Amino acid sequence: MKIRSIFFYEWKHFARSPFKVVALLLFVLAAGYGLHNGASLYHDQMAEIDRIEQTIDENRQEYLTYYDEGKPGPENAPWINLAEPFWAVWFNYIYHFKTPSPALVYSMGQAEQYGFYKRETCWASPYDADMTQEIANPERLQTGTLDFSFALLFLLPLLLLTLLYNIKSMEAEQGFLPLIEVQAASKNTWLLSRVIFYLGLLAVLIVGLLLYGAMLTGVFSAEGGAFGQTLLFSFFYLLFWSVIYYLILRSGKSILGNTLKMVGIWLVIAFILPAAVLQWISIEKPANLMTDLIDAKRDKSQEIYDLPDSVFRAKVDALFPEIPTSPVAQDSTRIATAYSDCYSALINELMKSSIVPIEADNELKNELVRSSYWLSPITFFQNRFNTIAQTHYENYQIYRNEIQAMIDKQIRTMVSDTWNDTKIDKQKYLDYHTSLKTN
Amino acid sequence: MWQIIKNEWSALSRNRTLLGLSLGFLLVLLLSVLLGIQQTQEQTQRYEQAQSELRQQWENIEAMNPHGAAHYGTYVFKPSNLLSSLDDGVNSVTGNVLRVEGHVQNEIVHSEASQMQSVSKFGKLKSSLLLQYILPLLLLFLAFNSISSEKQSGRLKLLVLQGATPSSLIWGKTLSVWLYGMALLTLTVMVYAFLNLGSITTEIVNRTLFFYLSYTLYYFVISGLTVLISARWQNATVALTSMLGIWILWTIFLPNILLSSVEQWHELPSRNEFQTAMREDRSKGIDGHNPADERGKELEEQTLVEYGVDSVSQLPINFDGLRMQADEEYGNQVWDKHFGHLRDVLAKQKQTYQLAGIFNPFISLQNASMGFSASDNLHHQEFLVQVEGYRRNFIKILNDEHAFGGSTTGDWGWEADNDFFKSVPDYEYQPVSLSAVFPNYIPDLLLLSVWTILVSLLLVFGTKKMQIV
Q1: What range does the domain containing B287 cover?
Q2: What ipTM describes this predicted complex?
Q3: For residue B101, what is the enclosing H or E element?
Q4: Is B12 domain-assigned?
Q5: Are B340 and B384 in contact (CB under 8 A)?
Q6: For residue A87, what are the domain limits?
């Protein structure tokens, strides 16, 4: 029997199996719903970023009028002087956004566990409370949102199971298998061809769904060929399950036996192994209660405030070697005030050093997760999809690093302009906005 | 009927595959209990260590201005409870650290899930994962051909001829499968109780009993429904695939889809909207740090009249402390309004989601399991409310010391001594009692009961016209 004939008869068999057709339609429905969920999150985040940018513009316009009117700042806050670098930087409302990738439509990943906008100030840190997740129902977060990657990772194997469960075993139970052997050159080729038929069918379905998703957010404009990569890993994943099911079908002869084995494998791979890995990591490396960060924010920060002037100034000078030769350093009446603007610089260094062990701890956990990929392949694929959609832990780590770099730059600029006695006018205020928006 | 159950059990015990499967499952189940307890112990140890470290820091304050101490503040860590080793609920996605300080009600931050890349979509290997997802599947595999195989082999006819009624057969099969589930559930709970013998309280016993009851009802629904389908369909494969379809729909599809929908029906504000609205409302009140503030001036006038003096410098107390407390009390109204609104929306979401138990008993089971394990969102919100109550008392003690501790207005250099800081009470978590939250879980228990009655009625009436051959 030619492969073309096998495909033809398989198509007829599929079309006449309402159970299989309904399963396929249900999958399409779930995957479509997942794509819309992803697109909705993408559009929500973009809209939120637009709203914040609009508010920033309004706020900045208010402060620009003070320059136009020659006022130092708002009347009800006489301590503010916009001619000073510290206040001009502070009221520049510098934000850094993690603009969502259009590929978020495919995998929402960890996008709901972190903040995606952050106001940068000289006192900010990438581990501030405002870097936490958007307000959401924790029970929904725990259950997870049905996105496309969920449909692909958990429902696709079930769909494949539904399409394949009675292949060969039905013929074996009904006694047709010897007849098949007569008609087909090889029983294995016949079985393989039938499995390939469904593999092809699902591959076409995946391409269709990915294209539909691409239309919802404009994935083709995303960097790094997100569409192609998602497609590639989807095919690998489909192939992974097809091979497992093919081996079960090849060795088994009863429908029930095969179904039980297929469901059993699915349960182990989708539920037990990832859950066991997570439990193991939670015991090996329990949740960090961030005491290092707390110590830095309170006691160690307080220690900086309590430093004798000479020690404090020596530390600041070590951080900014240009200070002793700067114009303000030559004016003894202004030195104390200028140094007081440098507390944020030392505290920023302190915060950075306290973050190092936290991130090292997180990296150890990630290392444990990576080392478990061979045991829990679904975790590997999940994280691949998250990486492509830029919703992976690493993408948020990059975002945190960018925030830190921007804070460093803001502090450097503020300290440098303070000590160089730079008077901030309207143009300089506007320049700050341009230069401090990038790291 | 007991004879049928006895026969079924002896048949089950002769099935080596089933015995192997049961043994394997039991091992994983017991492992999950052990690992769950170990994790809870580790977490509790870390929690106690961190909490005591922070308390030590607070008690080591030699001397500090009370308002400075309000800014110094403290931190509260979310404690884990013994029952979360059975069902972790929302614990891994909610934060663990809550800052307690003056002027602001903070949000809980630093969740476990945010500290690493994603691993499992269905949480940790806790007993609840196995009891909710895997054990029902096992029951389903046991029951799907319980009647149809008897029909196909002709044994059903023989049994009826021997005097067994179809109804007693169906009930016998249902109960034998259900008892298998109950045996595994009972063993899990017993091992859990045995390993925690020293820490078990009446509260934990009561909660565990309701936890047990919820699973008891759900397993009956699954066992009964599968036997019913097996009785209605001649073909065992159709029975199996139908029940698998129902299982997928109930446990994978609907909870996901419904929770997402519920969140859209009762929308929560975005963080930015929430913060902006709070900031706006907050700006309408007293500014504790700004002596020129108009509302602060009004309070000053009232205080001067009350003490019968002309200026704050003549006051025998420190007016700054009074202004700070007035600022706090205004702020508390703002937090109550906005955080209260969040809690209201979350409560509405929960109530709507609970109603979905009408067509999906798994949702009722999941709610009840988390709720009775004290790890659902309701318990999380109760914890947050408790911490906020502590914060308000904590700040009031500091402001009162500032106002009446012996300093005068404008004297920001005045410092309270170490004895005072030691006297400020530490945060102590009061576990939420079951009686206080029980009404919230009545809908879940009620719906599980309704499902049990419905399945029982179907077993009685739906199988009356069952074909014997």
Answers
A1: 2-461
A2: 0.89
A3: strand B97-101
A4: yes
A5: no
A6: 38-146+288-436
